[in-house]
Amino acid sequence: MAKDEPGQELPSAEDARLTSLQQRLKDAAEAEQSRTATKQAKPGKGYSQGNRVLAELIAGPAVGALVGWVIDRWLGTAPWLLLVMLFLGIAVAFRNIVRISNERPE
Asked: Global pTM?
């Protein structure tokens, strides 16, 4: 029922329904918060090591190739220094991956 006058209170049936609805909304919000809180946990050290390995696999050869390309352009020795620096970048990346893999995740 709607209010007819400004001072009139809502009937008790509507109060109970509103209270029940508020309680259910509160419970649902708490359940959602606890569900999402577990998903936003900080990743473990193993996950971080995996990201480091991936960064090494991408960055080592890319930086080596870039440096080799720049030196080739400067000295006019294309493509030899590019190839040498590419393989040097791959070797450095593999060495760093071995060092990362020897670290113990906790």
From this structure: 0.57
